[in-house]
Amino acid sequence: MDDPKHDPHLATRTSLSQDMRSSLLHCPRDSWASQPGYGGKASFFLEYHALLRRGSLALRAGLESCLGNFQPGHPNAELDDAVRTGRQLLQAAHHHHAIEDASYFPAFRQAFPKLGSALDLLDNDHRILGAALDETGDALDRVQAQGEQRGLVALAYDRARALEHLINRHLDDEEDVIIPIFLHAR
User: Fold this and answer.
1) For residue range 102-152, what is the model confidence (pLDDT) as tens digits?
2) Residue 60: enclosing H or E segment and its boundaries?
């Protein structure tokens, strides 16, 4: 049984529960790159996840820099760059989750029924992430539509900071669930 103190919610969990970890396919993270099936989907997923991590870091850092250098009434190319980075991140994350939800997760459920609770957790993460992606997009829309107002930039920064946390937690956990599947299913 899961530890009642272990919160499965994406925003507050710090790792997968021990019960969930014990249901996963065994393949230690530090051995992934040496596995025979690593060069295919496993390495592609890890590269795409690295792209999402870099994008979320760049968005948060760009908005943080904009806040630190904020000058009311002055056009800010740095802010334009941050918004463009944010748009690319949002598009890439939605695209990635759509493929997983429509294709990979259903196939994994069928091939590995014992991973059902882990896949349910990842599905729920996608719903939470989808809302966070939309909230971040809305904040970026407001920055673009209403001009460079410090309060709007601060709101976008807060959303980007929260999104970065969610993305990093989700991707770490998703890799622990998914990469061993790719490596076992060669």
Assistant:
1) 999 999 999 999 999 999 999 999 999 999 999 999 999 999 888 668 899
2) helix 43-68
33 CB contacts (<8 Å, ≥6 apart)? 43
Q: What is the pTM of this model?
A: 0.91
CA distance 53 to 51: 5
Whole-number Å distance between alpha carbons of 148 and 153: 7
Which of the 8 DSSP states describes residue 25? P
Q: Domain spans of the chain? A: 36-184
Other C-beta atoms within 10 Å of 12: how many?
9
Under CATH, which architecture does the 36-184 domain have?
Up-down Bundle (1.20)
